Amino acid sequence: QVQLVESGGGLVQAGGSLRLSCAASGIIVSIRAMGWYRQAPGKQRELVATITTGGTTDYADSVKGRFTISRDNAKNTVYLQMNSLKPEDTAVYYCYANVRTLTAYLYTDYWGQGTQVTVSS
Q: What phi-psi label fits residue 26: left (phi over 0), alpha (psi between -120 and 50 degrees) or beta?
Protein backbone atom coordinates (compact mmCIF):
# COMPACT_ATOMS: atom_id res chain seq x y z
CA GLN A 1 0.00 0.00 0.00
CA VAL A 2 2.87 2.34 0.77
CA GLN A 3 6.31 2.30 -0.79
CA LEU A 4 9.35 4.18 0.45
CA VAL A 5 12.12 4.57 -2.09
CA GLU A 6 15.52 5.79 -0.95
CA SER A 7 18.33 7.26 -2.99
CA GLY A 8 21.62 9.07 -2.52
CA GLY A 9 23.84 6.54 -0.79
CA GLY A 10 27.35 5.75 -1.94
CA LEU A 11 31.04 5.85 -1.18
CA VAL A 12 32.64 9.03 0.14
CA GLN A 13 35.89 9.97 1.82
CA ALA A 14 35.98 11.05 5.43
CA GLY A 15 35.03 14.70 5.74
CA GLY A 16 32.82 14.53 2.68
CA SER A 17 29.07 14.92 2.29
CA LEU A 18 26.11 12.94 1.02
CA ARG A 19 22.41 13.69 0.75
CA LEU A 20 19.86 10.92 1.15
CA SER A 21 16.31 11.18 -0.11
CA CYS A 22 13.27 9.03 0.61
CA ALA A 23 9.97 9.41 -1.20
CA ALA A 24 6.77 7.80 0.04
CA SER A 25 4.06 6.82 -2.43
CA GLY A 26 0.78 4.94 -2.35
CA ILE A 27 -2.72 5.50 -1.01
CA ILE A 28 -1.52 7.95 1.64
CA VAL A 29 -3.91 10.07 3.66
CA SER A 30 -1.33 11.65 5.92
CA ILE A 31 2.15 11.14 7.31
CA ARG A 32 3.18 11.98 10.81
CA ALA A 33 6.83 11.41 11.71
CA MET A 34 9.46 10.58 9.12
CA GLY A 35 13.05 9.74 9.77
CA TRP A 36 16.19 7.74 9.30
CA TYR A 37 17.73 4.79 11.08
CA ARG A 38 21.01 3.08 10.31
CA GLN A 39 22.53 -0.33 10.89
CA ALA A 40 26.23 -1.08 10.77
CA PRO A 41 27.54 -4.64 10.40
CA GLY A 42 27.23 -6.53 13.66
CA LYS A 43 25.32 -3.73 15.36
CA GLN A 44 21.71 -3.02 16.16
CA ARG A 45 19.68 -0.59 14.11
CA GLU A 46 19.87 2.86 15.66
CA LEU A 47 17.92 6.07 15.27
CA VAL A 48 19.70 8.79 13.32
CA ALA A 49 17.13 11.57 13.01
CA THR A 50 13.40 12.20 12.99
CA ILE A 51 11.17 15.04 11.89
CA THR A 52 7.50 15.71 12.56
CA THR A 53 4.96 17.14 10.15
CA GLY A 54 5.48 20.52 11.75
CA GLY A 55 9.25 20.36 11.37
CA THR A 56 10.34 19.45 14.88
CA THR A 57 13.57 17.48 14.66
CA ASP A 58 15.52 15.12 16.87
CA TYR A 59 18.99 13.71 16.33
CA ALA A 60 21.25 11.04 17.73
CA ASP A 61 24.05 12.62 19.74
CA SER A 62 26.61 11.11 17.37
CA VAL A 63 25.32 13.11 14.39
CA LYS A 64 24.27 16.40 15.97
CA GLY A 65 25.88 19.34 14.22
CA ARG A 66 26.81 17.23 11.19
CA PHE A 67 23.51 15.85 9.85
CA THR A 68 20.37 17.79 8.98
CA ILE A 69 16.97 16.22 8.41
CA SER A 70 14.27 17.99 6.41
CA ARG A 71 11.05 17.10 4.62
CA ASP A 72 8.79 18.26 1.85
CA ASN A 73 5.25 17.48 2.96
CA ALA A 74 3.81 18.19 -0.49
CA LYS A 75 6.08 15.53 -1.98
CA ASN A 76 5.93 13.09 0.96
CA THR A 77 9.71 13.14 0.93
CA VAL A 78 12.30 13.23 3.69
CA TYR A 79 15.95 14.18 3.26
CA LEU A 80 19.10 13.66 5.26
CA GLN A 81 22.01 15.98 4.56
CA MET A 82 25.16 14.39 5.96
CA ASN A 83 28.27 16.55 6.30
CA SER A 84 31.68 15.93 7.86
CA LEU A 85 31.18 12.21 7.42
CA LYS A 86 33.26 9.82 9.50
CA PRO A 87 34.15 6.15 8.92
CA GLU A 88 31.90 5.27 11.85
CA ASP A 89 28.94 6.63 9.88
CA THR A 90 29.30 3.64 7.53
CA ALA A 91 26.04 1.70 7.60
CA VAL A 92 22.90 0.85 5.72
CA TYR A 93 20.52 3.77 6.14
CA TYR A 94 16.78 3.10 6.30
CA CYS A 95 14.06 5.68 6.07
CA TYR A 96 10.69 5.28 7.73
CA ALA A 97 7.37 7.04 7.72
CA ASN A 98 4.41 6.82 10.09
CA VAL A 99 1.54 6.71 7.63
CA ARG A 100 -2.22 6.58 7.58
CA THR A 101 -3.62 5.10 4.37
CA LEU A 102 -7.08 5.16 2.82
CA THR A 103 -7.72 1.60 3.95
CA ALA A 104 -6.50 1.84 7.53
CA TYR A 105 -7.75 3.81 10.51
CA LEU A 106 -4.49 3.64 12.44
CA TYR A 107 -1.08 4.99 11.56
CA THR A 108 1.53 2.37 10.64
CA ASP A 109 5.30 2.51 10.24
CA TYR A 110 6.61 1.77 6.77
CA TRP A 111 10.25 1.24 5.88
CA GLY A 112 12.47 1.74 2.87
CA GLN A 113 14.72 -0.97 1.49
CA GLY A 114 17.89 0.67 2.77
CA THR A 115 20.76 2.45 1.07
CA GLN A 116 24.44 1.81 1.74
CA VAL A 117 26.64 4.64 2.94
CA THR A 118 30.35 3.90 3.09
CA VAL A 119 32.86 6.40 4.44
CA SER A 120 36.51 5.66 3.75
CA SER A 121 39.30 6.92 5.98
A: left
